[in-house]
Amino acid sequence: MASIAQVADMAAVPSLQLLRWIHQYGLLENRGGLGMFIDDDNVVRLLRMSELVARGVPEAEAVQEVRGLGLAGTPELPHRGSELVARGHAGDVAALEELLLSRLPRPTFEEHVDRWLMPELRRVGEAWASDEMTTQQEEFVSSGVLAHLYARLREPAHAPLPMRSVVLGLPAGQYHEIPVLTMALALHLRGIRVHYLGAAVPKRDWVSTVIREGATAVVLAARSPSAARAATDLTNALAKVAPGCSAWVGGSHCDRVRNALCTPDSFQQAAQQIADSLGEASVAG
């Protein structure tokens, strides 16, 4: 069962529009208002209706297809209430980008990363692990989020502070880059000069970039024992060649990394601590 509001979130349409479809076209036998609950079969019908209309199919034609929808063998209901899971099922690039723009506004980016983006990404992982999403659907969401973050990182900073720079990325053998790329964008939006290297970056490239840019800090992640070992290899090298460069590490195994500081779990707090460590007053996006 799901409420009208939950289905509206999954379908990315206003609640009142769902109610209009239900009442105007008689899609459900038991009709109610905003407080009504809808069984899983009819949730699937409403999600299909929203997909068809979003593609430009006239409502009257969409209704006919939805009414004829045989629900035996219909895919499981997506992870209830998750907007990213719903976008993964829809596979609509434009709709995913529109969602990310609306949910990650520039002035309060870090707050919305903590409150919306990271919880949503966890739900995507859970949906994939429980076979509610295919690998292709999960990768569609992940690649869409990465593309969104990369595009925004290329935009000019609102109030650049050129005196400090931070190098971010993942050490060799590590590929889960959304959290570190998100931090790169958070610092960029604060006006801090960032150099994002990407995933699985060899140690020599880290060292050369830090020296060339005169970086004040580096940020990386350690989500596993192997990642912690790779991060330690890097931070030990940086401690020798760039002793004035501080290292910040996020992830569940950050405390295993030597010559580094763990970032708080909160992106907002982590970005603030890193900005403070640079000796710069934080600048709101």
Would you kindly provide a written description of the structure presented here, covering whatever features stand out?
Residues 163-285 form the B12-binding domain. It holds the Pfam family B12-binding. There is one protein chain. The chain has 285 residues and is of the alpha/beta class. Helices cover 54% and strands 10% of the residues. It folds into three domains: 2-69, Orthogonal Bundle (Multidrug-efflux Transporter Regulator, Chain: A, Domain 2); 83-154, no CATH class; 165-281, Cobalamin-binding domain (Rossmann fold, 3-Layer(aba) Sandwich), CATH 3.40.50. The strands form two sheets. Strands 4-3-5-6-7 form a five-stranded parallel sheet, sandwiched between helices. It has a two-stranded antiparallel sheet with strand order 1-2. Helix 9 links the parallel strand 3 and strand 4. It starts with a strand and ends in an 8-residue tail after the last helix.
Primary descriptors:
single chain, 285 residues, alpha/beta, Multidrug-efflux Transporter Regulator, Chain: A, Domain 2, Rossmann fold, 3 domains, five-stranded parallel beta sheet
Q: Could you give the count of β-strands? A: 7
Number of domains: 3
Uncertain runs: 29-35, 71-78, 280-285
Q: Please give the CATH class of the largest domain.
A: Alpha Beta
Q: Look at the helices and sheets and give the structural class.
A: alpha/beta
Shape: elongated
For the biggest sheet, the summary is: 5 strands, parallel
The percent range for strand residues is 5-15%
Number of helices: 12
Domain B12-binding: 163-285
GO molecular function: cobalamin binding; metal ion binding
Protein name: B12-binding domain-containing protein
Pfam family, one: B12-binding
